[in-house]
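Sample intake sheet
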Amino acid sequence: MSSSKVGKVSSVTSEYKWVIENFCTSCKRVGEVLLSPEFSTLISDVPTQWQLGIYPKGEGYTSNQCLSIYLYNLSGANITVNVSFAIVDGNGKVLLKKILGEKSFNKTLNWGFPAFACSYDIMDILDDDKLRIVCKISLHPIESIKTLQQEEEDDNEKFLSEQIKEEKNRVRLLEFDIFERMITEEDKFSDVTFKIGNQTWKAHKCILAKRSSVLATMFQEEIKDNVVEIKNVEPNVFMEFLRYAYSGKVNDIEKIAEELLFLAVRYKLDTLFGICEETLCEEVNFESVVEKLRFAHNYKASNLKKTAMQLIVSNAKNIVVLPSFKALTDTPDLLYEVLLSMAMHNIYKE
């Protein structure tokens, strides 16, 4: 692996700025890394040495032509902090920012983004061929920056009268009540009933058939007493499935994303599938990554699989010793994919 230390790091409270000149010509190949000068923090009275590293053309083949960025803990101490990375212009304006969230670092376990952004997109936003990276390290959660649209919406909200706010809340409650009554109470216009265990929901074929081609085909066949029994799913999950079919909304999706994705596959709701997959991608971490990879493999969730694979490849030494990783021997085709990704990753780094 070829590497060189370039640029200068300066500290502003818990923010550390790294400026790289001549960025567009800094690295030519995938796997070439640039390392920042070392810098230190004193968090909870624990002195810690850090270093930033970027792969301008990507760390490996899974992140080819993407800017990969990592924060390395050079000290031996275990420490848990919140981290964010941002690219800023010469005036300090944030051009791109991603929040890594709370992560545990030690001498061998480091974190970052294998695909922070497309390398060509980064080059397009640089006006002087200088890449300015700001890394924030904090004990407290890092707030995301509001967009201009969000700021305008906040300003507009301040001018709403209390009467208008109450009316908006009343409408929201009314919409909720209508949906709840529509599928749980007697409705003379409903024409199908879904049954899960002892619970039933009344629904409307015309609405559900528009959402799902699978349900549309089912409804064309004769259904005894117009009752459809659903198996292998929890009632609260199917409730949210119906809510999405009627309103395009889901409550508490982070708690049921895997189960809801299963229904999205069963009934071919591609948009719901994408929403669930995006939620699961945000939940990938060191402890859950192997199980998330296995789930993605089983349900052909390509984005989730890519996210999990990148984390495994980037932290192979720590993950291959986990019991969940050793259990991949019962899925040889998936294990082969992981080992191949690791091998290709090492080839690009050489």
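Comment: The chain has three domains: 12-139, 174-264, 284-349. The two ends are 5 Å apart (CA to CA).
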